[in-house]
Design brief:
Elements: E1 6-13, H1 18-35, E2 38-46, H2 55-65, E3 71-74, H3 77-80, H4 84-96, E4 100-103, H5 110-114, H6 116-133
Parallel strand pairs: 1-2, 1-3, 3-4
InterPro entries: Resolv_N, Resolvase-like_N_sf, SSR_resolvase
Pfam family, one: Resolvase
Organism: Salipiger bermudensis (strain DSM 26914 / JCM 13377 / KCTC 12554 / HTCC2601) (Pelagibaca bermudensis)
Length: 135
């Protein structure tokens, strides 16, 4: 990614919480600013479970498929999905469209997400670690 990168911020809280969304917004905005990336849109699912396909994920897919953004920034992997298969499907979609999946509070590697035989333990640990620190 370069300073010409356009990013989408994705913020999600399972239990409706403006404070949690505000904290995520700051972390993700700081992440983008530190890299010199332009934020195209902030997509929020407030009060939406991480085990379902949240409405905001459809917006993310549409914008990525349309070539409008090169990166998605969330605070952690659990914001995208608490279901490892759902997370892998979303990561695969990003990879197929040349977009990166970034986390403000975790080091993320699309290859590690997409190759569970090599990294399933660390993927599941990352999801549960995120569950312990965020709602």
């Amino acid at each position: 990614m370069t300073t010409d990168t356009t990013a989408l911020l994705y913020l999600r809280a399972a239990h409706s919480s403006d404070a949690a969304i505000a904290e995520q917004h700051k972390l993700c905005t700081d992440y983008a600013e530190a890299r010199g990336w332009r934020v195209l849109q902030v997509i929020v699912d407030n009060g939406v479970s991480g085990v379902s396909d949240a409405p905001g994920l459809t917006i993310l897919r549409d914008r990525i498929a349309g070539g409008e953004a090169q990166a998605i920034i969330a605070t952690d992997l659990a914001r995208i999905s608490r279901d490892p298969e759902g997370l892998q499907a979303f990561a695969r979609f990003c990879q197929q469209h040349g977009a990166d999946l970034c986390c403000a509070t975790q080091t993320v590697n699309l290859d590690a997400i997409l190759n569970p035989a090599k990294s399933a333990g660390s993927l599941i640990k990352a999801l549960y670690d995120a569950r312990e620190t965020r709602s």
